Amino acid sequence: MTNYPEVNLYIGGAWKKTAYAQPVLNPATEQVIGRVPVATRAELDEALEAAEQGFKVWSAFSPRKRAEIMVKAATLMRERSEEIARAITLEHGKPFNQAKLEVIRGCEFFEWDAAEGQRIYGRVIPSEPGIKYTVHHQPIGMVAAFSPWNFPLSQPSRKVAGALAAGCSIILKASEETPAGAVHIARALHDAGLPPGVFNLVFGMPAVISEYLIPQKQTRLIAFTGSTVVGKHLTKLAADHMKPVLMELGGHAPVIVCDDVDPAAAAVTSAVRKARNAGQVCTSPTRFFVQEAIFETFVRVFAETARTVVVGDGFNSNTQMGPLANHRRIEAMEALVADAKQCGARVLTGGERLKQPGYFFPVTVLADVPESARVMREEPFGPLAVINPVSSIDEAIQKANALPFGLAAYAFTHSASRANQLTEGIEAGNISINTLEASVAETPFGGVKESGYGREGGTEGLFNYTVVKNISHSMTI
C-alpha cells in the first residue's frame, strides 16, 4: 500500500514545490514513502506577505461566514477520512482504526471552534451618565504555529481551528516526519473556499523556520506543541520581540489508584490506554502510584494485559499498537529501561525492541522503580509504564507533584471525599477521575509549571487568539 499523497508547501492559496525535499519514512518498514519539501527564506517571506493580506480579508468576515467555511472543511475531511487515515498510518504507524478516530477528532476541533467563534462576546461596563465603556475581543493577527509528529492531523487541527475561528490568519509549520495530515487540512480548507493567504503551510528545519518567523512584524502570536526544552527556547525568542505565546509542552502523567476500586478493572483500562499511540502522547498515563492493599493485583493484571497487546503494522486488522515513530524513540526506551534495571527496578514485561524490521517496541511495565531512576524524572514518550506502591493518598499526591511537569493527571476512586482531595491537591492543568481521557474539543487543555502556558480548546482556548480592546466613549461633547 503506497498511495501516499504528494506533499507540497501551501502559500497564498496555491501549492508550491521546492528545490530541496527530504524523505518521509514508514516506521513499520523503515522504507521511504514520500518526500517533504523544505521552505527557503524567500518562501517564508512569501508566506508572511500572504498571511498579512489574508488576515485583512479573513478578520473582516463575519463569524458566521467564517464558521460556514470551517464546517465545510470539516465535512470534507470526514468524507475523506479513509484516505487521510491511510496516509497517517503510512507515515506514523498507528493502527488504521485509530488513525480514523484521529481524523474525526480533528474535525471536532473545527466544528466546535467554528460554533464557539460566533460567541466571542464582549461586555458593557456600568458607568456614569454620558459615558460608555465597552470591551471587545478582536483577532490578534497572524499566528505562527508549530505542530508535532505524534498526531499528524488532530494536533495541527487544534491550532488551525482556534486561529481561524477567532479571525486570525496562520502559518503552520507542521512536522516533516508526518506531514500528510497537515496537507489534508490545507486541501479541505482550499476546497471549502478559504480565501488565499488565510492558511499557509510550510515545512523545513524547525529551528531555522521558528527563528525566522518569530521576529517578523507580521507575527503576533506563537503557538507551539512539543518538548519543554524547545518550548522554553521559543518563549525566549518571543519575549525578545514582545510576542505572546501559547505553549503546550511535555508531561509525565501520574495515575493514583486508590484501594476502594477494583484493581483488576483499573489495571486493564490503564494498560490498554498506555498502548494508545504507542505511548507517544504528552498526556499518556505513565507514573502509577497504587495503594499497597491492591498493589500486587494491579501490577499482575496490568502486566498480563500488556503482554496481550498485539504490536504490528497498522494496516493489519488485529494490530492494537503500531511502531514507535522513529529510531530516536527506540533508543530512548532502551536507555530508560537499562537505567531502571540498573537502579533495581523489576521488568515485568517488554523492555526490548522486537527483532523485526520497523521501530517496534512492546508495552513495557516496570515495578518498584527507585526515585533515582531516570524514568521517574524524564518523560518516556513511549509505551513504558512505571508502577510503584504508596501507603496513603497524601504520599501519592506528594509523588505526583514532585516533578516540574503538570499537564495531565489521573486517579481511580469511588470516594467523593478522596476525589475532592485529589483534584484539589494535584498540580495539573487536566485531571481526570475514573477515566483516562484528558480532553475533548469543548474543554480547555493545557498545563501548569513547565508543562506550558495558555489553553487550547473550549471557550478559554479561543481567547488566546484574541486581544482585548477597551473603548471609552463620552457622549457629552
Key descriptive features of the protein:
7-stranded mixed β-sheet, 22 strands, 6-stranded mixed β-sheet, Aldehyde Dehydrogenase, Chain A, domain 1, alpha/beta, Aldehyde Dehydrogenase, Chain A, domain 2, 477 residues, 39% helix
How would you describe this structure to a colleague?
With 477 residues, the chain is of the alpha/beta class. The chain has two domains: 9-249 and 451-471, 3-Layer(aba) Sandwich (Aldehyde Dehydrogenase, Chain A, domain 1); 254-440, Aldehyde Dehydrogenase, Chain A, domain 2, CATH 3.40.309. 39% of the residues lie in helices and 22% in strands. It is built from 14 helices and 22 strands. It has helices at 41-58, 63-79, 81-92, 96-116, 154-166, 180-192, 206-213, 228-240, 263-274, 292-308, 327-343, 393-400, 416-425, 458-463, and strands spanning 9-11, 14-16, 21-26, 31-37, 123-125, 131-139, 142-146, 169-173, 199-202, 219-225, 245-248, 254-257, 287-291, 346-349, 364-367, 384-390, 405-406, 408-412, 430-433, 448-449, 452-453, 466-474. The strands form six sheets. It has a seven-stranded mixed β-sheet with strand order 14-15-16-13-12-18-19, with helices on both faces. The chain has a six-stranded mixed β-sheet with strand order 9-8-7-10-11-21, sandwiched between helices. Strand 5 and strand 6 form a beta hairpin. Helix 3 crosses helix 4 (96-116). The chain is globular.
By CATH reckoning, the class of the largest domain would read: Alpha Beta
Total strands: the figure is 22
Shape: globular
SSE-based structural type:
alpha/beta
Distance between the termini: 73 Å
The parts where pLDDT drops under 50 for at least 5 residues are none
CATH superfamily (homologous) name of the largest domain: Aldehyde Dehydrogenase, Chain A, domain 1
Put simply, the count of helices is 14
What proportion strand? Answer: 15-25%
Q: How is the largest sheet built, in terms of strand order?
A: 14-15-16-13-12-18-19
Mean pLDDT: 97
Which architecture of the largest domain would the CATH scheme give at its second level? 3-Layer(aba) Sandwich
Helix content: 25-40%
Task: Examine the coordinates and then state which fold CATH places here, giving the name of the CATH topology of the largest domain.
Answer: Aldehyde Dehydrogenase, Chain A, domain 1
Total domain count: 2
Cα-atom radius of gyration:
23 Å
Task: Let me know the largest β-sheet.
Answer: 7 strands, mixed
